[in-house]
Amino acid sequence: MDQSNNVTVFILMGLSKNKNIEILCFVLFLFCYIAILGGNLLIMISITCSQLTEQPIPLMNQPMYFFLNCLSLSDLCYTSTVTPKLMADLLAERKTISYSNCMTQLFTTHLFGGVEIFILTGMAYDRYVAICKPLHYTVIMSRERCHAIITASCTGALIHSASQFLLTIFLPFCGPNEIDHYFCDVYPLLKLACTDTDRIGLLVVVNSGLIALMTFVILMVSYFLILYTLRAYPAESRSKALSTCSSHVTVVVLFFVPILFIYIRPATTFPEDKVFALFYTIIAPMFNPLIYTLRNMEMKNAMKKMWYHHLFRGGK
To answer: Which residue, 213, 285, 287, is CA-closest to 256?
Structure first.
């Protein structure tokens, strides 16, 4: 590999060449990253510490919130593989990343992105069982089943990420070394490889695009079945279930549509790719806490009880 690879450093082209725009983007993304850290940490702390309050059933023992806790953790990890480097580059004169760090970023972004995709699928399955098979819910969504879903999500993401990494790590890079993106991803790297990448590009479409498409279709079908089942529910129960499911659908659309735009096509790059990538690397992780808390009365009540318990009663 080393003999056919003359590139040791890549130059990231970033979002813009205008310094004023870069400074504006830095301020915006700094706010976004603080919101991502604060919002997701707040959700994780509220769910984990709900067992210390007077909750009848701690949120951590409820499958939906168990998955939400895992989703928040994956959000934090996922956006942290991209956003800090992006913000540092926005203030830098020369945006560079070493070959090894580029490959590491490629691996970790697909790893945590894959975890998030599969957790969202697990959450859809949880809502499907809760609404379509309520009498069997506690049996089907046992603690062991929830842990098995998370284990499967991590394993599937690892296989996906490792395959993307292996498709890229053996590519020869002879120059140029300018990546037309703000982070290392497969398609921009394929564009720089000094070899025929048509077959590898097809494998990337299968590994990323088709997986994302199949997952998106499965999610939409599950929510369609949920909506169909809700017709027979009383108005109050139907309203609560619709509120929960609509928040899930919002997250799914916000995350999957940009991913499908980029990965479902052959190995080509467009200038718009960088804008679409912002949606699933920064914007979706930022809105997830807002969507899941502001649209969820049980979550808001749990947060109020938890913080009241710790701030005004001293945790007693």
So the answer is: 213
List C-alpha distances in Å: 300 to 51, 222, 237. 15, 26, 18
Q: Which of 29-38, 165-174, 176-185, 238-247 has the weakest average pLDDT? A: 238-247
Question: Which residue, chain included where needed, has tokens 């695009």?
Answer: 209
Residue 112 amino acid letter: F
Name the pairing type of β-strands 178-179 and 9-12: parallel
What sign has the CA pseudo-torsion 271, 277, 283, 288?
Answer: positive
**How big is the chain, counted in residues?**
316
pLDDT digits (tens, 9 = 90+) for 130-180: 888 888 999 999 999 999 999 999 999 999 999 999 989 888 888 788 898
Nearest by Cα to 263 from 195, 188, 313, 197: 188
Cα–Cα dist 259/265, whole Å: 10
Confidence of residue 3 (pLDDT cuts 50, 70, 90): very low
How far does CA 191 lie from the centroid of its chain? Answer: 25
Tally Cβ neighbours within 10 Å of residue 73: 18
